[in-house]
Amino acid sequence: MQPDDTPLKPGDEGPPDAPGVGEDACRACHGTGSVEGHRCAVCNGTGKVLQGIGGG
Ligand SMILES: [Zn+2]
After folding, report:
1. 15, 33, 14, 36: which is closest to 25 by C-alpha?
2. Which residues in the chain come in under a pLDDT of 70?
3. CB of 38 within 8 A of CB of 51?
């Protein structure tokens, strides 16, 4: 098996090409990429996470 080209961040719920998954601002750092002066571990400092959209 090949490793995925797109490493998922801890806050990601799925790969960006997965149906029903979209990019959204990280809730942990509110899209800033850092929490209390440290790089956000949830979004890896990107301020964005892939979250499931639609549905419930
Ligand atoms: Zn974050």
Report:
1. 33
2. 1-6, 54-56
3. no
**Ligand 1 center from residue 25 Cα (angstroms):** 8
When divided into structural domains, the chain yields a total of: 1
Token pair for 1: 């098996």
Cα(33) to centroid(ligand 1), Å: 5
Q: Ligand 1 centre and the CA of 46: distance in Å?
A: 7
Show the DSSP H helices in the chain as ranges: none
| pLDDT in the model for residue 33 | 97
Query: In the structure encoding, which two tokens stand for residue 31, read together?
Result: 């899209």
Domain of 3, in residue numbers: 1-56
